Amino acid sequence: MMGRKTIWMNPPLEDLAKKSEGKGRDGQFSRRLGDIVERYGALIKLTPVPELTDSEKMILGVLGANADPTSIRYMGDRVIDTGAAPLAELKALAQKVNSWTVAEKIAVIESFGL
Question: Residue 85 sits in which domain range?
Fold first, then answer.
């Protein structure tokens, strides 16, 4: 059995903890967090990462690891905003990114290990 761990309570975890308050000492927070991590893992394992050229990987890498809803939704627009390649190349990549599902966008971010 693993001992207790200390984790950084970022805003999404704070929200989860608040939703778990008043549930007694039944491990509600830990159980919910475990369920969410398990589902996220399944999502990543079952979502193929779209194929990318080295140049496309470099451009997407400039975006960093932002995975908030706004960053995911506007990932294609953010590609153009990088200015990391000629505009025609950025527009082509933005069009490609805009054709991806949310899960595919997250899988790409995860594939970078950021």
Answer: 54-111
- The answer to whether the predicted template modeling score (pTM) of the entire model surpasses 0.90 is no
- pLDDT (tens digit, 9 = 90+) per residue, 4-59? 788 899 999 999 988 887 665 566 888 889 999 999 999 999 999 999 999 999 99
The upper half-sphere exposure of residue 18, i.e. CA atoms within 13 Å in the direction of its Cβ, equals: 7
C-beta neighbour count of 54 within 10 angstroms:
7
Instruction: Based on the fold, state whether residues 96 and 76 are members of the same structural domain.
Output: yes
Specify the amino acid at residue 89.
Answer: E
The pair phi, psi for residue 27, each rounded to 5°, is 75, 25
44, exposed or middle or buried, with CB in 10 Å at 0-12, 13-18, 19+? Answer: middle
User: How far is 91 from 58, CA to CA, in rounded Å?
Assistant: 15
Residue 5, domain member (yes or no)? no
Domain co-membership, 59 together with 105: yes
